[in-house]
Amino acid sequence: MNTRELGLAMCTALVVGNTIGMGIFMQPAALAPYGLNALTGWTAVIIGCTCLALVFAALARRLPQADGPFGYIRATLGEPVAFAAMWSYWVSTVVTLPTLAVAVVGYFISVIPAAGAIPPALLTTGFVWLFVGVNLLGVRSGGRVQVITSLLKLVPLVLVMVVGATAILSEPAAYTANLPTTPLVGLGPSMAAATIALYAMLGFESATVAAGRARDPERTIPRATLIGTLIVAIVYVTIVGIGMLLVPQATLAKSDAPFVTIIDSLLGAGYGRWLALFVVISGLGCLNGWTLLVAELARTLAIKKLMPEAMGRVNRFGVPWIALLVIGAIATFMGLMNYSDSLVAGFTFLSIIVTAANLPLYLCVALALFVLLRREPQALSPGLWLAGLGGIAFAAFAFIGVGTEPFLWALALALAGLPVYFWMRHRHPVPAATAPLP
Questions:
Q1: DSSP secondary structure, 63-131, as one string
Q2: What is the C-alpha to C-alpha distance for residues 213 and 207, in angstroms, rounded to an integer?
Q3: Which of 348, 269, 386, 300 lies closest to 98 in space, CA to CA?
Q4: CB 103 within 8 A of CB 283
Q5: Strand, coil or helix: what is 278?
Q6: Is 309 helix (H, G, I), strand (E, B) or coil?
Q7: What is the mean pLDDT of residues 167-193?
Q8: H or E element at residue 189
Q9: What is the pLDDT of residue 338?
Q10: What are the phi and psi torsion angles at 416 (to 5°)?
Q11: Which residues, in sequence order, are CB contacts of 120 under 8 Å at separation 6+?
Q12: Residue 13 near residue 151, CB atoms below 8 Å
């Protein structure tokens, strides 16, 4: 039986589906303070993600037997570097949980205004533990929730794009008055905006994970990664641009549910509440899916002897229950420690921490490509040198834009992995076969 069953369309859909999440539903408000600098930030993100997409695609093509990004980095830079990159990535996925929960709370209060009487921090924590509980009952239970919610996220996106574009094109003069007043000044605002925008693009490398099941992966994976990345970027930039034109900058920046604000400004007060229902359902699906992903990633690292064995211990439903409880506790801590009076401010800060924790992985895969280019200069396209340089430059660009406090949070969480690694390698010495290739 031929297991290579994913063609270009399916691989592209995988990239689009895994990348579009709750981030876009908060982007209009999170980026509103930056005005037109948000668009220059998005330009940098599109260029940077395209370079990184080429990097991931090249590594998937040249190292088809490697175990995803961890395998790429371990085979070229060594296991300690690979662990540091994957630990940082794992940290980013854990912090994603309270980030998603904060985004859901803003829309949940729009759907059920009475919930506004409950402290948002309590609602955020409650949503995190709700899906820890759902996933403790097994992958099958969590999977059912995911199937129900996965496609509903498209409804608000399509509605805002169609209704918003129609309104702007039919009466452009009425909306150009809402153009942001924040001027285009220097690289600083663009860097900061790019860091926030990058959060919404995390997951663009998804097709490389499915390389083993793709038809003609040498062509399909690079094309799907690039096409999917560009489709998502176009959708996101369109949404952000529509928000800028339809709603005054100050109003949008203060909105805890920006899609509701946009629809209410178009159709009248109250209509956005029904749209918020779809966003809440979609957001809960994202939260469920990420909870499952984080736990499974911890279990995989435990199986590889890179995390304590307890993190891989499963309950009678086959679920890594200790990992789930630890993840729930860390997510709760991060959510409460970084809680803000404004939900959009809390979301923005947490999303920047997530982005900062992802950047070591992106930097390391770009460096891994350089190792391969040096080792096999004839086997890879010379143009990949530019892609690798672009990936490194973009990672540095985003690191600068992160800002001091989120960077220190991400650094502290990353450094927390060092004792774990050395302890595990003391107990389980690394086999010689996993050392970097010459």
A1: -TTS-HHHHHHHHHH-HHHHHHHHHHHHHHHHHHHHHHHHHHHHHHHHH-GGGGGS-HHHHHHHHHHHH
A2: 10
A3: 348
A4: yes
A5: helix
A6: helix
A7: 80
A8: helix 188-201
A9: 65
A10: -65, -20
A11: 102, 105, 109, 339, 343
A12: no
CATH of 14-434, one of 3.40.1010.10, 1.25.10.10, 1.20.1740.10, 1.10.340.30: 1.20.1740.10
More reliable by pLDDT, 68 or 278: 278
pTM of the full structure: 0.83
Contact between 23 and 290 under an 8 Å Cβ cutoff? The reply is no
**pLDDT interval class at 151 (50, 70, 90):** low
Read off the tokens for 90.
């794992």
Q: How far is residue 80 CA from its own chain's centroid?
A: 24
Sequence-distant (≥ 6) Cβ neighbours of residue 409 within 8 angstroms: 338, 353, 356
What pLDDT is recorded for position 436? 45
Nearest CA among 209, 196, 413 for reference residue 296: 209
68: left (phi over 0), alpha (psi -120 to 50) or beta: left
The chain-wide mean pLDDT, for the chain, equals 83
Identity of residue 322 = I
Tokens standing for 233? 């970027």
Residue 299: in which H helix or E strand, if any? Answer: helix 271-303
Confidence grade of residue 435 (pLDDT, cut at 50, 70, 90)? very low
d(CA 128, CA 240): 28
CB proximity list for 272: less than 8 A, separation 6 or greater: 110, 257, 259, 260, 261, 262, 263, 264
How many angstroms separate the first and last alpha carbons of the chain?
A: 37
Estimate to the nearest angstrom the gap between the alpha carbon of 139 and the chain centroid: 21
Name the one residue in this structure whose structure tokens are 């996220």: 153
Res. 141: pLDDT tops 70? no
Query: What is the spatial distance between Cα 427 and Cα 418, in angstroms, rounded to a whole number?
Result: 14
In whole angstroms, give the CA distance from residue 199 to residue 22. 10
Position 367 scores a pLDDT of 94
- And the tokens for 166? 């129609």
Spatial CA neighbour of 355 closest among 150, 89, 154, 131: 89
The reported pLDDT for the residue numbered 243 is 87
For residues 110 and 123, the answer to whether their CB atoms sit within 8 Å is no
